[in-house]
Amino acid sequence: MDNSPGGAYGLAQPQLADVRASLTKVFGERVDPIWVRLLSTAGLTGTETDLDSLTRLGQAMLASDQPVVALCGRGLVIRLASFAHLRSVHDIVIGVDQ
Q1: 66, 48, 24: which is closest to 57 by C-alpha?
Q2: Neighbour-count burial of 58, counting CB atoms closer than 10 A to its CB (0-12 exposed, 13-18 middle, 19+ buried)
Q3: Is residue 5 in some structural domain?
Q4: Which residues does the chain have with pLDDT short of 70?
Q5: How many domains does the chain have?
Q6: Could you tell me if 14 and 76 are in contact, meaning their C-beta atoms sit under 8 angstroms apart?
Q7: CA 93, 98, 6 angle in degrees (round to 5)?
Q8: Residues 37-40: contacts with CB within 8 Å, 24+ apart?
Q9: Where in the sequence is the domain holding 83, given as residue range(s)?
């Protein structure tokens, strides 16, 4: 079992780089203006590592006028919620074991 901060049940905390990589798989070379617009909409620089920033990016993606970006945003929101819930359960279990 992963006891590292942020890791739970083998899942790593999502990162901005993960989101950009996913968008790059979909949009290829056309990703740069999309990425810049999403960061601007979310009020991010692109160097953030906290979950609140990722949540803001997910909301910006959901609000996108591009359906595929919005769909990717839905996936990010689901991934973030799953990670948060699993981390909470992991923390409870680890707390009981110690």
Answers
A1: 48
A2: buried
A3: no
A4: 1-9, 96-98
A5: 1
A6: yes
A7: 55
A8: 38/64, 38/69
A9: 16-97
